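Fold these two proteins, one after the other.
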Amino acid sequence: MRNLSGFARFLPIAAIYQGQVLNVSNIAREAGVARTTVAGYLEILEETLLCFRLPAYEAKMRVRERKLPKWYWCDPGLVRAIKRSSGALVPEEIGPLFEGLVAQLLRAYKDYRCIFDDMYYWAPAGSIETEVDFLLLRNGKFVAVEAKSGRKFSEKWCKGLRAIAKLEGLQRRVVVYPHGPVLRTEDGIDVIPFDYFANLLAENRL
């Protein structure tokens, strides 16, 4: 019964971490459960394919600078159900849920169609505000993808993609958003709606 009680406290906290850096110690403290127990719970969620971890890209990074992975659930609806959220989405939910949808789509094409070799997120050392959601690796070349849930394109969306521009092997930078026109910034960042992005993946043209 104690284990079930701990798992019940753990689950909604783990759901809050959708699209966030996974800190096991923080989750354990918030849930009032031992760190080792939380680590076991997370492994169960991964082994049952309900969740997965996205590692940070760490080229030439020293061990002490190693970054924690990000955490994603397999379905946005599951996240809401575990948090017991119902009704219309609130603003703070939309971004992480949309990012999770993009993450799961990319993971599916990686695992089942093998259209790229590996998948990371990118965050430069010493920065806590600059990040790229997904960095896709194929044959030594990269595509950087940023997921944004807004309805109208903003130059602010490109901050991370501009910071990563000099990464060796980077071939393309993409912003994915729910709906809207296909755009291209002056410095070559493609801005595309989700359905168009999904078609690019299906045709292996990303």
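Now the second one:
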Amino acid sequence: MSGPPPIPLQLRVLRGNPSKRPLRPEPQPAVDPQCPEPPPFVTGYAADEWWNVGPELHRLGLLTAVDIAVLAAYCTSYQLWRQAQEALERMASRDDSMHGLLVKSADGNPRRNPLIKVARDAAADMVRFAGEFGLTPVARSRLVAGVHSQPGPSKFDGLLGGGPRAKPGSR
């Protein structure tokens, strides 16, 4: 399939409808009256993050029963990233020369600390999941731009009428 992925109806409503075409309703999953509880495996930092972002997503209509797993994946990625970062900070406080960036391998040679990759991968996953919910500045700017922008002149304006688009009723 080529082209951009389809945009859910709720996000299209938030972005605005510059084409003024009717938005066809889509089947929508049930929205609970209250923000759903995190799954039992979402604990610690992940649960804290759930309660930081979940209520706002629910208020915007972006957190439904079928979105729980994706939000849980975001929250567990956040937890893994935070734990790896904290472990790296503890290692850095004990290592004045390399600040925990290098560790000794089994053969005694220095190598990059594996926690760096763990933290980087978890952060990448977290940002990817966050983008699905509009939790990044770029994702939010797309929403804000759609809500406040007005369609500009089309390159096809005046093609049939010989000049700029006439206002309705002015002919």
